[in-house]
Structure formats: structure tokens, C-alpha cells
Design the sequence.
């Protein structure tokens, strides 16, 4: 048995990353070697070694649980013993166990799978790993990875095992618990299962909080939380959840730990295992229940190459440094087991949550395919190879200037595109032609053979979109999810471009200028509207505007002349219309939702309204300007929530169901404002004439 | 006046008292373990009525360090550390493990920072004298001195930065200009009146053992500063055995008070760690706490009546009752006023018959947390012995290093067996285990019962009784540790202690956080040697505990050791407050912790303190600048 990973001997690539799989393959029986290696991770200095079952025993005895149980017993006139039994039940469902041999077995299988599917490698930035090793000894550490795939936590645990870091305790969704055998294995490797939502169940909340605190404070293991709450199905980051962050920060704010370090981890997949699953989910096919048999069915993926994975450990955020300005002694005058965060602290928590997501975004590495997909999205009817190459090259230039990290290989651009097209041949097809330049590339209308995952009942369960429409739309949705990865970086300049349209001033010599301050109102409106779809830190509006302006300036499409006055350059058109085209599907979808509500005023059940809108948009697919990606449930759900936030819709409770009601004047107002930004409003009564992206404008 | 009153009253109680003493002595052979930790006290060699600290304190005490001149840690000719003199139980013994321990801390006997041999009177700042004031004092025949050595001796307490400066042969910009020695309460009234008339700044001083810069002269004080040495007011005015009260002049030193009361079969039971040198008035002014407060109470519990002379007049109550309801408690404003409002002259304390039985004990725990839980339960059950202290692992090991040479091969053999039993058989981790020291006092039956209860509770928390010796050594450590700091300073180590009070549920967390913060801040300051960062729980209450920290490091390589040290201590204080601890449990605020006052309470509350000061002392005669700005 040996340590396997040796920082001195491993070969780094130019980004300072090692390819874990390649390193393993250097050895004979790499997977076996990994599974049998010596594993002696560093320990947090104040950790008292204990068995995982001691953790929940301590939780049972804790002040918080005792207090909560007494309170519930009093209020509900229930015997304390029965509530304690309930606590024990919750804990047994929640708690992780610790079986290194199972971890080794899991590691063995996982590496085998990864050898098969990640043929281009798994890359990890090792310098951060070494820093992490030192930090783990001094402070409790929380990993906060981006969440795109179920592979995320398997990957992080595997990497930790490989690098001799302690395995994290993973806050996983309850869904897995139903998977026989697998749930046991996940538990053994440190997963604990939390309910998706437990807002109102105070006993559950107390037990969960105490359990997490127990682990953080004693530092039994680092912890792993997904700040986005769930896997993002669309390639974009999700808005962070604050509740969990408060649970994590509480031990620091109450001085139960010296510090807590949060390590944002960006896990970028070249190709997602779940790409098609997500797309169907967005079209209204319910997510298949996690089951062990489902997992075996999914083993069909083993034949495919899913490219590479980049795992980037970001700089640790020390709560002590980040919350340094907060006076923790405000918590000294009441018992610590009562949660009481001041408004100031809650705001800080929100800020921090956004910071973590932004850090994750910053360190994501996009594949060349995302660039190609962005271009392809604009040509639903296809594009010639020549034009594709030209557009990709131009867009690459734009992204490079904005310092977006993209893993271009050293190959020529033609070759890269060819390779991608081959890799994604299930989504795009190219007509074979003698002259490569004129070969035609368009989105495949073929539907994958993996339908076996969706049973017929699933298709018929909701009378929303017809299976045919779904099958037509699915590849467009997949494609847009790859493009979306880049939109995180483009949203600020794009919104500037949308805003400046109505505020341009041209003088006699045709010099077009605008004032930064004149954009504020429009920009603010758009940010407010789109803040569910994209990540905007609350209260940082002016900063976002400046970022947008500077991104455009870097690209030379605008230039700052005097204080807050910008000149629009002559050649700005291409970039500006490109950006607009990328984002107009969002604006049109929002506008369409407005039209839906304005046409059919009344009240809707929150649970079904989104499907109703989806169906309605589906009925208008033939209208010019309406595209398949507007059918995405995620997009439409964001729309509804955003309209609720902007008071265009109101919610109230009817019995136990949440109802949505149209507030017509405000909604009309929003719709009008929105229409202003859409160059070619879909004419809802006319049939589809042309693609929404007018290539002549390029 | 006072003594005649005493003799009249005492006639009636004479026979009774004699009986108590004889009873006490008779039983003594069986039960009474005289407390030999404090120097001289109870040795019976010093006659009652003796005043241990002479007016020229430099004749007996160190001028540049703690305690008696003849007592210090020294490296003997064999290269081992020994404690000189004959005053303490440890005196004359060799501690073979101490030097290796010191070397672990990075000490090197060749790297020394020797103190100046004596006060260099030439460098002493010239006094700013207020002639009218001096004339007035001469007229009323007050004893005064402008001798440079007298002034320097009363210009400082025992805060690290003060000693560091003295050892270098330097002085603060401002030191007292004149020393005044009042003999009685009336003297003080006259003195304060004169000071008000001629606008002179007064700073009262007792034993001068403050560790918060409380007697240091403010740098910017332009007026003549008169330091009022209270130690000549050291009589017990009367003892009332019916009500168990004693009226005592505020300048009396702790050991003298206890010795005189012991001769009458009584005690106050107030034993702060500094009791050999600190004064009654100082205890009142800093809101002191005694080691045995579980039996006798803290100073605020002991104090029944007090007189304080302020520029506005004398503050006192007109009755001497155990409790009264008449608005806010006046005494609470006097206790802890740190010399900013006036001079405490006479104090009436509760006294108790001497305990019949005194026993030491100790318990070892596998971890500090277990110990804290045990102490918490003992406090909950209200069965705490007179003193119970829990040392952390570092302090436990430090205590082991102070073990004197084994008297015989047999003892050292037994020590080995014990160690083997604890660490190997019982599985205690030598790097986690810690020890609680116990001191029981009272009736033999009560003590026996208490011992039983305490050891039973301890067993619940995996505590194992570890014998009387360990307990006694723990308490002895209290009195000699201040001497060790001087020894450390000889070898380039700065060290200090500070305390806080904290609710039970936060004790362990606070200890861990503060110790971590000290280490991190030392790292940030560039300290190159191992850092001593250790704590103990020294007092238990229903609602919480008092925690005492020791901090020390070798400063070689640092540009400004004192500034670095202060940065570390301030960081530690910040961490204490953030962790829910108090700014002080018994050391007080002085000038050292003043900067943290605004964080401990609201502006309105500070305003109350300020307004009282403004009313009683509008011209800031008591201008020591302690507590608040």
C-alpha cells in the first residue's frame, strides 16, 4: 500500500492542474491501487475522535434538541418520550456512517466508470489542494461545489480520497435514500440525507441544525453543501439558498468555533451525464425516481465519451475575515441554541451566498463546445461550416478579451469544431459534403434511443406538451443549456446593450454617444426582471452596470470619452446584435408569459400555472420569434416568480394551495416596458416567417 | 481611639475567643492542615500585630519584580532550577523538570535580558511640586516624601509593560511627584480637602499589585500628582464577634489581616492570589475575588460597611446591616471605582470562625471538556468546595514540570507507577488530560460529606482522584507563578495573565477560541518560539465560571516586544468579548482595558458612571484616568 499521490512526482499541465485519471493510469491496475492505497488524511487539531453514532447521540442530548422537545411537548401536550423517539428516527435517517472499506469499493467502481466516460481526463488544481491540506488542520472546512450533476459529490469525495484529504460529510437530498444498496454506500462514504424542504417542521430543522453544528464544531469531517440547493438543469448558476448558509455560519457567529472556512469548488463538465434527462425534465417529463435499477439502466452511458472534468478549488473564504466587522458578542445575552440572526447578519449572509456562487462561476472552465453551441443556437435552421468557423472565431475573440476561461486545445479551430461536432453528433448533424466549408450543420431532429428511461406513463402523466413537440424541442433545449454556461459571463454587457438602445444621442457628425446615468433605469428593470435566471448580487446594481460597460469597452464596441459619457463605435453592431440575440429568447419568454396572463386574467394554482403557460407557448411554436427553448419549465418558473416579485402577479393562499392572481395594470406596465427591448415582437396571430436571429445583421 | 474601643469590647468576648482557639488547636492535630502555600502565613513564627511590609518596601520587596527579594527562581550551579529563600514550601527545592520545560519553550540560558541592578535615581523625572499644597500638608503634619526611590516604588503596578520598562532602567514620563502617608481617616479627609483647594491630582495606592496600569500616572497630567500610600492605615479597629464583623483600615495588607484575625480564631476567608502583598482598600477598589469565595464570598459579599472620602465629602451609610432596600446600592458604586471617585479609608467586613478542617484534593480528567462538565454539575448541585480549579492540559504539564526532586527513590518509583497506571491502564491521553485541584474547608463532617459528593460527581465525568499532593502543589503554584514571570523575563520571555467570566455553556468554546487566537496573533506578530497559551477555570458560580489565562513567549527577534505582547493581549481580549466573556472578572479595568469598555455596555450605562464621577469629583482630583475617559 502506498500513498499514490505525490505532489513532487505528479505532472502539472500549463494551468497548474493534474489529470487524476492519467496519474492513476500510470500505474498498473490504477483503480485497484487507488482502492487499496494508504489513507491517512490530516485531522482538525481540536477534533475529538469519535464514532459517527456518537455524533447523533450527542445531538439527542444537546441543549437545542432538549429545548425544542420540551417546547413542543408543552405546546402540543405530547409526551416528551414520543418526541424524543421522533428525534431519534429523524437522526437515524439523517446520519452518515463511516466504513472505509466500502469507500474503497466505491472508489474502485467510480474510477473504473470514470476511465470509461471521462476519456479526456479529470483535472484538479493541485496548488489549492496543498493549501487546503494545511487549512483543514486549523479550521473546520465546508466545501461548496457548484451543482450540475449527481457526479459532483462522488467526484469530490473521490478527489479527496485520492489526495489524502478527509472525506467530506455530504448534505445529500433524501431522494437517494430510496436507492437500495447505493444509499448505504453513499452513507458509508459520508453522505447524510436531508429533506428537500423542511421550512415549517421546527423539530426537523432543530435536529438538522444541531447535527450539522456537531460535525462542524468537532470537525469530524469537512462538510459539503450545495449552495444552489439542487442541480442546475440549465447550465446557468442557480440563485443561492441562504438558510443552509446561516446554519453553517451560526457556530462561528456564536463563537463555538474559531473560524469556518468555506471553499467554493467549481466542477465543470465538458458534457453532462444528465444532459438529456434535464432537457426532458424542462419539457415537463418528471425526473425519474432515483432507484438502483434506474442506475443500472443508466449504465448505457458507459459507452460514451463525456470528455473531461475540471475541478477547481477556489480560495477559501474565512468567515472570521468575511464577518470580521460583525460584533459577535450580540449573541452573548441569550442561550446559544436559539437561532436569532440580526438583520445585518442576514444581509451579510445573503451577500456571502452570492459571493460564493460568483466565485464558483469565476473558476468554471467552459468547453469549446459551449462557444459552438452559442452560435448554433442562433441558427435554428442550420449554418454552413464556413460561417460556423467564422462566427466561432469571432466569438472566441470576444470571450478571450473578457477573460472567460475556455479549454481550447492546441488544435486548430477547424479541428476543434470537427471534434466537437463528432462528440455531439447526437444533437447536431452535418451533411457530408466534398467541400467541408459548405457542409451544412443543423440541429438534429433525431430523438435519442435512451427513451427507455422514460416510461410511457410519464409521457402521458401531464397533459402538457405532446410527446412529439417534446421530441422536437429536446435537442434545442440541450443546445441552449450549453450556451447558457457562457451567458453567466455575457449577461451584464448584454443588458447594457439592451438598455442603451433608447438612450443614444447622435450629433451632426454621426457620432453616437450615451450617458451612463441614462441607462440606469432600464438596466435596473432588466436586472430586476432577470434576477431569477442570472446571478446578480442584490444591491450591487451600479457595480453590475460598470462591469457591463467595461466588458463592452474591452471589446472596443464602446469607448468612454468623458465622465460617464460613452461613444458607440461604428463596428459595435455585430457584438451588440449578437448579445441581444443570445438573450432575446429570455425576454420573449417573459413577454409571452405576460401575454398569457393578460389574455386569461383570473387566478391560477401555483402548482399548475407553469405547465399551462408552457402549453400555451407550445401552441404558438409556429409564430415567428418563438423558439423551443422558451418551453423550458425552469425559464417559465423563473418568469412567474420574477413577475410575482415585481408585483405583476400576486399570490395568496386558498386553503392549502398557493394561488397566483393577475394584477393587470402592473403586469400591463411590465409587458409594455419589456416589449420596448424586443426588436421583433412575435405577432401572436401570424405564422412563423423567419428565424428570430437575422443573420444579415451580423 | 480605635484600640481602646477594641479592648473594652473584647473583654466580654475574651473567654469565648480563647476557648475557640484552644478548641481549634486541640483538633488541629487531627484535622487542620495549615495552609503552607502562602509565605509565612500561619507558620506561627510571626507575631500577630506584625506589619509585614515596611514603609520603605524596597528593603523587603523587589523593586523590579514580584514579591520578596530573597525569593526567586534561579539556575543553580548544577544547572537545575531552584527556588531561593525559605518563605515558601518550594523554597530551597530543586525542580529537575523545569529547565527542560523551559528549553522546550525556546529558552536558552545563554540568552539573557538582565534587569538593571538598582533604581538609577539620576534618571528619575524631576517632581512637579505644588508648594501651597506641600505647605498645607506640612502644616497638618502629614508625613510626605519626595524621595525618588519612594516615588518610583509607587509609580507602577505589576503590568508587564511597567516591569519591562523598570528592568530596562527607564521610567514613565510621569511618575508621582510626592508620596503622602495618611495615618487615619481624618488625615485622608484633610488631605483630599487640601488637594481640592490647590488642584492636586491624587492617586491612592495600597500594595501596588495592580495588573491593569491602575496606579500609573496619566502621561498628560500637568498638575502635581500626589500618590496616597495607604499602607500606614493598617489597624483592625474593632472586632464584633456577636455580629461577626470587623472594622479595618483600608491600608492593611491581606496576610497581616488574616494573621491578626487568626490569632482571635477568626478569618475573612478572602484570599486573592496577591494576598501576601495586596491591601484591603485595593480589593474594594477593584472589586476583588478570593480563591475561597465559594465559602466566604467575593469582596462585595463580605463588605458590610465602607467609608470613602471624595472631593464632595464622605460617602457612607449610617447603619451596618446585612441588606437594605433604599434605592440603588451605594456600595456597588464604591466597589470597583478604581480610585476614580475617592479614597476608601475604612471597611467593615464579615468575619468567620477559622475553619476546623482544611483538606486538599485533586481529580484528573481525560479532557478539559469533561472537567468543565464536572465543575458545572458541582456548581449546579451547590456542593463546590471552598476552592475548585480546573487546569488545562498545558498547565497540567507545566505543573508537572514544577515538581520538586523526589525525596527518595521510592517516591520517584511510585510516580512512575502512577503515570503508567493513568496513561497506560486507564488510557488517559497525556496530551489531553487535565487536573482539577480542590480545597475543602469547614467542619470535618461537612468536609467529609463534601469530598464524597465531589468525587462521586467527578467519577461521572471520568474523573479520577489524584491525591492531596497534586492539589496542594496546584495552590502553591498560584503564589509562585508570579515569581516565575521574573525568571522568564531574565531569559527574554514576556508573559502575563488575564481573566474573564463566562456562562457555563460557553466556557470550553471561549477557552479554545482565545488560546487559538493567541497562537494566531503571535504568529502574525512574528514570534519565533513556542507560545505558552494556557488557561484554567478558577471560580464556579451558578450561572458561569471565571477563566484565567496565562500567555507567554520568548521575544527574541521582535523589534518591540511590549508592543507585540500588547497586540496579542488585545486580540485575546477581543476574542473573549466576541466569545461572550466579560471584560474582567476581578482584575478590573484600569487603563489597560479601558479601550474595551464601550463594547461591554451601552453609552447610557457609561453615562451613569461618568455622571457620578462628575458629581463627586468635578475637578478630576482623582485623576488616575481609570475605567472611563
Sequence:
Amino acid at each position: 500500500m502506498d500513498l499514490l499521490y505525490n505532489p513532487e512526482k505528479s505532472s502539472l499541465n500549463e494551468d497548474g492542474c493534474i489529470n487524476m485519471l492519467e496519474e492513476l493510469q500510470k500505474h498498473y491496475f490504477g483503480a485497484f491501487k487507488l482502492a487499496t492505497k494508504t489513507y491517512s488524511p490530516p485531522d482538525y487539531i481540536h477534533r475529538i475522535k469519535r464514532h459517527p453514532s456518537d455524533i447523533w447521540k450527542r445531538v439527542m442530548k444537546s441543549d437545542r434538541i432538549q429545548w425544542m422537545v420540551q417546547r413542543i411537548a408543552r405546546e402540543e401536550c405530547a409526551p416528551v418520550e414520543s418526541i424524543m423517539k421522533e428525534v431519534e428516527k429523524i437522526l437515524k435517517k439523517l446520519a452518515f456512517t463511516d466504513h472505509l472499506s466500502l469507500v474503497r469499493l466505491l472508489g474502485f467502481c467510480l474510477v473504473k466508470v470514470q476511465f470509461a466516460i471521462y476519456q479526456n481526463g479529470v483535472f484538479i488544481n493541485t496548488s489549492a489542494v496543498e493549501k487546503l491540506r494545511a487549512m483543514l488542520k486549523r479550521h473546520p472546512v465546508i466545501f461548496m461545489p457548484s451543482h450540475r450533476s449527481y457526479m459532483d459529490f462522488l467526484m469530490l469525495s473521490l478527489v479527496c480520497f485520492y489526495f489524502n484529504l478527509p472525506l467530506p460529510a455530504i448534505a445529500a437530498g433524501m431522494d437517494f435514500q430510496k436507492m437500495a444498496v447505493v444509499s448505504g454506500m453513499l452513507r458509508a462514504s459520508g453522505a447524510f440525507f436531508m429533506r428537500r424542504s423542511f421550512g415549517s417542521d421546527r423539530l426537523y430543522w432543530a435536529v438538522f441544525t444541531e447535527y450539522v453544528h456537531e460535525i462542524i464544531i468537532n470537525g469530524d469531517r469537512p462538510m459539503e453543501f450545495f449552495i444552489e440547493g439542487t442541480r442546475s438543469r440549465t447550465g446557468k448558476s442557480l440563485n443561492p439558498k441562504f438558510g443552509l448558509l446561516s446554519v453553517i455560519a451560526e457556530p462561528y457567529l456564536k463563537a463555538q468555533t474559531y473560524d469556518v472556512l468555506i471553499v467554493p469548488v467549481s466542477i465543470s463538465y465538458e458534457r453532462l451525464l444528465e444532459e438529456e434527462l434535464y432537457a426532458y425534465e424542462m419539457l415537463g417529463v418528471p425526473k425519474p425516481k432515483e432507484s438502483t435499477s434506474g442506475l443500472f439502466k443508466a449504465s448505457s452511458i458507459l459507452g460514451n465519451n463525456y470528455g473531461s472534468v475540471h475541478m477547481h478549488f477556489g480560495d477559501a473564504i474565512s468567515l472570521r475575515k468575511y464577518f470580521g466587522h460583525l460584533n459577535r458578542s450580540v449573541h452573548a445575552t441569550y442561550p446559544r441554541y436559539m437561532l436569532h440572526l440580526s438583520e445585518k447578519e442576514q444581509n451579510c449572509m445573503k451577500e456571502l451566498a452570492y459571493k460564493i456562487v460568483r466565485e464558483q462561476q469565476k473558476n468554471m472552465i467552459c468547453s469549446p463546445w459551449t462557444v459552438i453551441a452559442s452560435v448554433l443556437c442562433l441558427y435554428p435552421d442550420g449554418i454552413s461550416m464556413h460561417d460556423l468557423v467564422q462566427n466561432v472565431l469571432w466569438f472566441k475573440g470576444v470571450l478571450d478579451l473578457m477573460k472567460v476561461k475556455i479549454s481550447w486545445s492546441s488544435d486548430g479551430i477547424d479541428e476543434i469544431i470537427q471534434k466537437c461536432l463528432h462528440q455531439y453528433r447526437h444533437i447536431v448533424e452535418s451533411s457530408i459534403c466534398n467541400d467541408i466549408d459548405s457542409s451544412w450543420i443543423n440541429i438534429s431532429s433525431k430523438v435519442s434511443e435512451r427513451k427507455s428511461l422514460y416510461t410511457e406513463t410519464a409521457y402521458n402523466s401531464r397533459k402538457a406538451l405532446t410527446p412529439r413537440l417534446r421530441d422536437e424541442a429536446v435537442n434545442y433545449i440541450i443546445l441552449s443549456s450549453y450556451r447558457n454556461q457562457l451567458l453567466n459571463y455575457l449577461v451584464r454587457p448584454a443588458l447594457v446593450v439592451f438598455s442603451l438602445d433608447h438612450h443614444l444621442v447622435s450629433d451632426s457628425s454621426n457620432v453616437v454617444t450615451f450617458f451612463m446615468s441614462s441607462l440606469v433605469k432600464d438596466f435596473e428593470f432588466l436586472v430586476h426582471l432577470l434576477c431569477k435566471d442570472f446571478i446578480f448580487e442584490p444591491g450591487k446594481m451600479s457595480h453590475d452596470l460598470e462591469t457591463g460597460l467595461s466588458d463592452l469597452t474591452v471589446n472596443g464596441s464602446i469607448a468612454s470619452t468623458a465622465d460617464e459619457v460613452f461613444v458607440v463605435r461604428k463596428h459595435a453592431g455585430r457584438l451588440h446584435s449578437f448579445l441581444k440575440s443570445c438573450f432575446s429568447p429570455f425576454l420573449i419568454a417573459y413577454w409571452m408569459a405576460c401575454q398569457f396572463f393578460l389574455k386569461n386574467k383570473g387566478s391560477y394554482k401555483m402548482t399548475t400555472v407553469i405547465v399551462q403557460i408552457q402549453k400555451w407557448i407550445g401552441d404558438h411554436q409556429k409564430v415567428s420569434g418563438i423558439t423551443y427553448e422558451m418551453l423550458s419549465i425552469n425559464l417559465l418558473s423563473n418568469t412567474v416568480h420574477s413577475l410575482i416579485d415585481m408585483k405583476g402577479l400576486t399570490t395568496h393562499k386558498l386553503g392549502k394551495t398557493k394561488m397566483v392572481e393577475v394584477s393587470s395594470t402592473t403586469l400591463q406596465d411590465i409587458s409594455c416596458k419589456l416589449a420596448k427591448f424586443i426588436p421583433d415582437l412575435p405577432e401572436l396571430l401570424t405564422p412563423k416567417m423567419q428565424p428570430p436571429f437575422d443573420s444579415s445583421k451580423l | 481611639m480605635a484600640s481602646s474601643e477594641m479592648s473594652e469590647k473584647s473583654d466580654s468576648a475574651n473567654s469565648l475567643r480563647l476557648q475557640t482557639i484552644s478548641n481549634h488547636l486541640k483538633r488541629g492535630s487531627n484535622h487542620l492542615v495549615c495552609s503552607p502555600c502562602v509565605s509565612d502565613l500561619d507558620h506561627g513564627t510571626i507575631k500577630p500585630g506584625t506589619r509585614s511590609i515596611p514603609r520603605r518596601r524596597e528593603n523587603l520587596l523587589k523593586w523590579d519584580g514580584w514579591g520578596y527579594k530573597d525569593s526567586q527562581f534561579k539556575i543553580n550551579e548544577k544547572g537545575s532550577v531552584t527556588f531561593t529563600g525559605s518563605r515558601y514550601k518550594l523554597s530551597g527545592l530543586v525542580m529537575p523538570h523545569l529547565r527542560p520545560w523551559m528549553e522546550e519553550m525556546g529558552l536558552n540560558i545563554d540568552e539573557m535580558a538582565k534587569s538593571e541592578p538598582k533604581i538609577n535615581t539620576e534618571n528619575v523625572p524631576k517632581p512637579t511640586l505644588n508648594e501651597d499644597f506641600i505647605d498645607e500638608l506640612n502644616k497638618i503634619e502629614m508625613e510626605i516624601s519626595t524621595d525618588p526611590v519612594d516615588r518610583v516604588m509607587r509609580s507602577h503596578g505589576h503590568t508587564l509593560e511597567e516591569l519591562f520598562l523598570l528592568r530596562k532602567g527607564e521610567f514613565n514620563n510621569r511618575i508621582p511627584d510626592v508620596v503622602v502617608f495618611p495615618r487615619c481617616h481624618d488625615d485622608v479627609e484633610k488631605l483630599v480637602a487640601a488637594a481640592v483647594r490647590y488642584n492636586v491630582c491624587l492617586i491612592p495606592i495600597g500594595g501596588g499589585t495592580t495588573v491593569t496600569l491602575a496606579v500609573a500616572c496619566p502621561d498628560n497630567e500637568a498638575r502635581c500628582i500626589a500618590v496616597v500610600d495607604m499602607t500606614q492605615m493598617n489597624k483592625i479597629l474593632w472586632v464584633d464577634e456577636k455580629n461577626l464583623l470587623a472594622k479595618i483600615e483600608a491600608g492593611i495588607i491581606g496576610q497581616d489581616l488574616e494573621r491578626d484575625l487568626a490569632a482571635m480564631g477568626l478569618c475573612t476567608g478572602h484570599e486573592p492570589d496577591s494576598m501576601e502583598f495586596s491591601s484591603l482598600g485595593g480589593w474594594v477598589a477593584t472589586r476583588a475575588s478570593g480563591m475561597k469565595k465559594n465559602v466566604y464570598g467575593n469582596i462585595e459579599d463580605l463588605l458590610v460597611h465602607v467609608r470613602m472620602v471624595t472631593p464632595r465629602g464622605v460617602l457612607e451609610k449610617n447603619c451596618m446591616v446585612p441588606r437594605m432596600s433604599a434605592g440603588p446600592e451605594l456600595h456597588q458604586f464604591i466597589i470597583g471605582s478604581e480610585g476614580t471617585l475617592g479614597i476608601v479609608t475604612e471597611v467593615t467586613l464579615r468575619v468567620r470562625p477559622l475553619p476546623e478542617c482544611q483538606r486538599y484534593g485533586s481529580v484528573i480528567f481525560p479532557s478539559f471538556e469533561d472537567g468543565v462538565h464536572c465543575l458545572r454539575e458541582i456548581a449546579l448541585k451547590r456542593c463546590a468546595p471552598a476552592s475548585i480549579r480546573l487546569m488545562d492540559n498545558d498547565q497540567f504539564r507545566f505543573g508537572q514540570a514544577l515538581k520538586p526532586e523526589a525525596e527518595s527513590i521510592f517516591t520517584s518509583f511510585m510516580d512512575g507507577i502512577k503515570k503508567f497506571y493513568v496513561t497506560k491502564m486507564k488510557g488517559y491521553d497525556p496530551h489531553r488530560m487535565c487536573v482539577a485541584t480542590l480545597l475543602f474547608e469547614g467542619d470535618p463532617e461537612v468536609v467529609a460529606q463534601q469530598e464524597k459528593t465531589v468525587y462521586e460527581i467527578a467519577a461521572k465525568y471520568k474523573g479520577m482522584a489524584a491525591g492531596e499532593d497534586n492539589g496542594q502543589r496546584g495552590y502553591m503554584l498560584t503564589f509562585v507563578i508570579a515569581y516565575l514571570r521574573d525568571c522568564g523575563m531574565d531569559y527574554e520571555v514576556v508573559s502575563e495573565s488575564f481573566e474573564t467570566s463566562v456562562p457555563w455553556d460557553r466556557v470550553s468554546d471561549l477557552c479554545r477560541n482565545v488560546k487559538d487566537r493567541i497562537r494566531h496573533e503571535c504568529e502574525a506578530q512574528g514570534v519565533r518560539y513556542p507560545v505558552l497559551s494556557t488557561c484554567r477555570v478558577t471560580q464556579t458560580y451558578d450561572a458561569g465560571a471565571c477563566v484565567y489565562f496565562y500567555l507567554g513567549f520568548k521575544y527574541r527577534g521582535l523589534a518591540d516586544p511590549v508592543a507585540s505582547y500588547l497586540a496579542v493581549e488585545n486580540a485575546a481580549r477581543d476574542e473573549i468579548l466576541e466569545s461572550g466573556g466579560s471584560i474582567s472578572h476581578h482584575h478590573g479595568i484600569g487603563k489597560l482595558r479601558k479601550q474595551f469598555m464601550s463594547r461591554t455596555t451601552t453609552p447610557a450605562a457609561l453615562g451613569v458612571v461618568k455622571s457620578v464621577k462628575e458629581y463627586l469629583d468635578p475637578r478630576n482630583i482623582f485623576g488616575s484616568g481609570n475605567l472611563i475617559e
Q: What stands out?
A: The first strand of chain A starts at residue 17 and ends at 19.
